[in-house]
Write a structure and sequence with these properties.
48% helix; 4 helices; 21% strand; alpha/beta
Amino acid sequence: MMLTILYIGRDAQIAATVDRLLNAREEWRGLTACSDEEAVAICSEQVIDLVLLGNGILDAEEQELRKRLIIIHPSLKIIQHYGGGSGLLYGEIMAAI
């Protein structure tokens, strides 16, 4: 089963790294966004199974973003991704699903 995962973070370099890690796994399709508007557009156009919230998102921004994404996909799983290597990323995703 293909799992589509959207990473949202403010740092483009970190987003590129996470994108590479997500797409390195055959069973995952990774997408990234560095702005809330880009993330909402992606969620509006595609079915997303899991959202990873990364660095640089302020608490107030996160709460508003969660509300907007849940309106689009009420059962969407949204978790924090605090960084670390590919093993930590894999563990976070597997725990969420």
